[in-house]
């Protein structure tokens, strides 16, 4: 059994990790750390887990009882935690923050998008889990970049309120978010760096703009991204390109029909749909921001790191209604 520790156990991503890992056949959760909730049962925070586990939050991470740790803290907190705590070399690390996603001197984390770096993930000891918007947008664009034919891209993507984290803010509480929409961080979202990094990994000469307009949605979870780029491919060739690229990736479905968000919510699926409008290739990409966009993908990475079947513990049921 893989012994798992979670640091920063009170947030949405940690809650989603617990929901998956409690039922994972190869995992034992041995430590879940939360300074603000130490001594409380996990169901005191993640109320839906009542009756599912008798786990209690710990004040500190016990490195003697873990094989892998998931860092589920706010951006900047993972670097702080790792600088203040000695983690033995045999313990694998999966970081769900933004801290290690961009390549830099001294950064030995592998970028954990399986549809891009599966073989590197298998041999890695440290993973930087991708961002939620970044995952959805990259799934829409990777096949074109791999063909070397990606031009300037225009993206509009809408995300649920859980993408803003558990701590209430002026734009996440119910009375503001309900029956409302708004644009934020237009052309400057923090996930653009990792998106461009991945596109350049596949298409070395890619220097075009990725024009990204993020939108706050009035629903709890899920991301729908739409992207278009100039292309001379026929729609038949484009669809085949996508099907060939994703044929060995179990969680990405190239749909023949226009998808909807409920097909991915509560699952680790990514659905992409390709159409052609005159000279523009148009792609829809959908994921659950908390699962494929965060905790589910983190477990997918853990499976690969420990030599398990990639889908182990991740065949989750969508919410139809």
From TrEMBL:
<dbReference type="InterPro" id="IPR000706">
    <property type="entry name" value="AGPR_type-1"/>
</dbReference>
<feature type="domain" description="Semialdehyde dehydrogenase NAD-binding">
    <location>
        <begin position="3"/>
        <end position="124"/>
    </location>
</feature>
<dbReference type="InterPro" id="IPR000534">
    <property type="entry name" value="Semialdehyde_DH_NAD-bd"/>
</dbReference>
<dbReference type="GO" id="GO:0070401">
    <property type="term" value="F:NADP+ binding"/>
</dbReference>
<dbReference type="InterPro" id="IPR036291">
    <property type="entry name" value="NAD(P)-bd_dom_sf"/>
</dbReference>
<comment type="function">
    <text>Catalyzes the NADPH-dependent reduction of N-acetyl-5-glutamyl phosphate to yield N-acetyl-L-glutamate 5-semialdehyde.</text>
</comment>
<dbReference type="Pfam" id="PF22698">
    <property type="entry name" value="Semialdhyde_dhC_1"/>
</dbReference>
<comment type="pathway">
    <text>Amino-acid biosynthesis; L-arginine biosynthesis; N(2)-acetyl-L-ornithine from L-glutamate: step 3/4.</text>
</comment>
<dbReference type="InterPro" id="IPR050085">
    <property type="entry name" value="AGPR"/>
</dbReference>
<keyword id="KW-0963">Cytoplasm</keyword>
<dbReference type="InterPro" id="IPR058924">
    <property type="entry name" value="AGPR_dimerisation_dom"/>
</dbReference>
<keyword id="KW-0521">NADP</keyword>
<keyword id="KW-0028">Amino-acid biosynthesis</keyword>
<dbReference type="GO" id="GO:0051287">
    <property type="term" value="F:NAD binding"/>
</dbReference>
<dbReference type="GO" id="GO:0003942">
    <property type="term" value="F:N-acetyl-gamma-glutamyl-phosphate reductase activity"/>
</dbReference>
<dbReference type="Pfam" id="PF01118">
    <property type="entry name" value="Semialdhyde_dh"/>
</dbReference>
<comment type="similarity">
    <text>Belongs to the NAGSA dehydrogenase family. Type 1 subfamily.</text>
</comment>
<protein>
    <recommendedName>
        <fullName>N-acetyl-gamma-glutamyl-phosphate reductase</fullName>
        <ecNumber>1.2.1.38</ecNumber>
    </recommendedName>
</protein>
<dbReference type="GO" id="GO:0006526">
    <property type="term" value="P:L-arginine biosynthetic process"/>
</dbReference>
<feature type="active site">
    <location>
        <position position="132"/>
    </location>
</feature>
<dbReference type="InterPro" id="IPR023013">
    <property type="entry name" value="AGPR_AS"/>
</dbReference>
<keyword id="KW-0560">Oxidoreductase</keyword>
<dbReference type="GO" id="GO:0005737">
    <property type="term" value="C:cytoplasm"/>
</dbReference>
<keyword id="KW-0055">Arginine biosynthesis</keyword>
